[in-house]
Specification:
The strands form 3 sheets. Strands 6-9-10-3-11-12 form a 6-stranded mixed sheet, sandwiched between helices. It folds into 2 domains: 347 residues, ABC transporter transmembrane region fold (Up-down Bundle), CATH 1.20.1560.10; 214 residues, Rossmann fold (3-Layer(aba) Sandwich), CATH 3.40.50.300. It is built from 20 helices and 12 strands. By secondary structure, it is an alpha/beta fold. It is a multi-pass membrane protein. Its main location: membrane. This is ABC transporter ATP-binding protein. It is found in: Cell membrane.
Length: 584
């Protein structure tokens, strides 16, 4: 088991290095192009829903402008009333504008969130499809916690971009132009002053904060993903950690991960807080400056009507919300960009193999055998061959046993024969067809794998056995369970095969889980079965029963059994030894 653990640790390190390299490459590319590539890709997702986005922009722009006009008309009417002039037209118009602003704001939010939620649905579907293509080889190299964070929090963060970024930026731009023109009609200097203020708050300030907010946000996402990965691993391995007395070290490691995430989050919050303070202060300074300009224009006689000056000041004061929203996007949108980079890095990762889906690839007929000729293989980040000139022939009815030291390449060979990975040299054929040319569904129908690590789904015991054949009859499931020596497991549950298993089958021992995996294999109709330490967690009596059942249920199938146990290999018709990547 130590070799398996070492193999998993190496896989995890390869995955972490791969993720860091991809993120660095994305980061360098985005910096060279001003982040345009990633943003352009996010915009590309919107094209099918451009009409919804345009409705959101129209509703939002109209709502904000109506709110500004309501204040300007209301202030002008109040001053007119104070001076004894007619004021009802302005007051009525202000009320109408105020009433219409509400439905417009609702329309903006409705369309924004319809756009966002439909896009998140599509992105999540695309990510799941990517994960299916990457499984199992590439996903083994990624931490589960990182994947969970990506599928939940990272994708949810994209909602900020699609619901609260695109339309606010467009709304801020439109309102900036319209408000500046309206104020310029009252007085050109007021229009110019407003335009400069809008540029400072809505453009200069976000640009000044974009680099530091992105760095802190990306660091926070990475720290959180690492914490989730280590936490899930600690929960999965809690029995081993307690048995080995490693609880304190694990607790210290999780505390260090938590501290790192907390520190990264604290830096993000500091940047966000500083951005808010500066935004508010700059907005207040702009308002004071605008009031001073209006006052000077009145004093110089350039603006003769004080009512218009006060209306302009009131309208300018309430015209900042769209700009402030954009200004504060710098601290809110950068975590979204960091999340998007992580999601796109996964979506851009090249699968270990190219699958042939639908009608692509050759369809297998009857299984006539498998042949590996002069096969070599090395991992992408290494030049050292794990398999070296390996030859293997398997015919129907064969029972081939493979033994060897940990790290000799046995698990890698299984990955190659299952086409979880492609060879780097030599060739593998199944029924005289090159394995890389075979339709994936057809290949999966011809091969099945029972590994030493069995996952139990949150389903009934019967559902877990029939996971690959949901159309199997009750009798077929019961026969497979009986053949896998699961009778006493069925009897211990009041509901028998209908008992619901939860939390990765926490009620089952590791040996019982392996028997569920063997039952799955019995239920399979695959003519070639691969077994990777299928009885490693069983006692000797159960192991003997299961192996005898395997031989009794062979019916012309070909078996490849990898095991360290002589009692298991004793059932093989031919035993080969894996040593330094070669079979002998």
């Amino acid at each position: 088991m130590a070799g398996a653990g070492t193999h998993r640790e190496h896989g995890r390190r390869r995955g972490q290095l791969s993720q860091l390299n991809q993120l660095n490459q994305h980061g360098q590319h985005d910096r060279q192009h001003g982040g345009g590539t990633m943003i352009a890709r996010m915009f590309k997702q919107i094209r099918p829903l451009a009409g919804v986005e345009l409705k959101a922009i129209a509703c939002g722009s109209l709502g904000h402008l109506l709110a500004v006009f309501a204040v300007m008309l209301g202030v002008h009417g109040a001053v007119s009333w104070y001076e004894g002039r007619a004021f009802w037209p302005q007051v009525v118009a202000a009320i109408v504008c105020g009433l219409l602003a509400g439905p417009c704001a609702y329309g903006e939010q409705l369309n924004n969130h319809e756009l966002a939620f439909r896009l998140l649905r599509d992105i999540r579907t695309e990510v799941f499809n990517t994960m299916r293509r990457l499984a199992p080889a590439k996903l083994k190299e990624r931490g589960r916690g990182n994947l969970v964070t990506m599928l939940t929090e990272d994708i949810e963060l994209l909602e900020l971009f699609y619901a609260h970024t695109l339309s606010p930026i467009a709304i801020a731009a439109l309102c900036t132009v319209v408000n500046s023109v309206v104020l310029a009609v009252i007085n050109p200097w007021l229009g110019l002053a407003a335009f400069v203020a809008y540029l400072l708050v809505g453009l200069a300030l976000p640009f000044a904060f974009k680099d530091v907010t992105f760095r802190t946000a990306l660091q926070e996402r990475e720290r959180q993903g690492q914490l989730h990965t280590d936490l899930l691993e600690s929960l999965d391995g809690r029995r081993e950690l307690i048995a080995l007395g490693a609880s304190r070290n694990t607790r210290d490691r999780l505390k260090a991960d938590t501290d790192a995430m907390t520190n990264a989050r604290r830096k993000t919050r500091k940047v966000t807080g500083l951005n808010s303070i500066i935004t508010d202060a700059l907005t207040l300074l702009c308002l004071v400056a605008f009031a001073a300009i209006a006052w000077s224009l009145i004093q110089s006689g350039s603006l003769a009507d004080p009512a218009l000056a006060l209306a302009a000041l009131g309208g300018f004061a309430v015209s900042f919300p769209p700009l402030i929203a954009v200004s504060r996007l710098g601290s809110g949108i950068q975590p979204t960009f960091a999340a998007a980079r992580r999601v796109f890095a996964l979506m851009d990762e090249t699968p270990a193999v190219r699958e042939h889906e639908s009608d692509e690839g050759a369809k297998l007929g009857a299984f006539t055998g498998l042949k590996a000729e002069d096969v070599t293989f090395h991992y992408p980040d290494s030049r050292d061959n794990v398999l070296k000139g390996l030859d293997l022939t398997i015919n129907p009815g064969d029972v081939i046993g493979i033994q060897g030291e940990n790290g000799a390449g046995k698990s890698t060979l299984i990955d190659i024969l299952m086409r979880f990975r492609d060879v780097t040299g030599g060739k593998v054929t199944v029924s005289d067809q090159p394995i890389e040319d075979i339709n994936t569904a057809s290949l999966r129908a011809a091969e099945t794998l029972v590994s030493q690590d069995t996952f139990i789904f949150s389903d009934t015991l019967a559902g877990n056995i029939a996971v690959a054949r949901p159309d199997a009859t009750r009798e077929e499931i019961a026969d497979a369970a009986h053949a896998a020596c699961l009778d006493e497991v069925i009897d211990q549950f009041p509901d028998g095969l209908d008992h619901m298993l939860l939390r990765n089958g926490s009620e089952l021992s590791d040996g019982q889980k392996q028997r569920v995996a063997v039952a799955r294999a019995f239920l399979s109709r695959a003519p070639f079965m691969l077994f990777d330490e299928p009885t490693s967690n069983m006692d000797a009596l159960t192991e003997g029963q299961v192996m005898r059942a395997l031989i009794d249920q062979q019916h012309g199938r070909a078996y490849l059994i990898v095991s360290h146990r002589p009692a298991v290999l004793a059932h093989a018709s031919r035993i080969l030894t894996m040593e330094n990547g070669r079979l002998g």
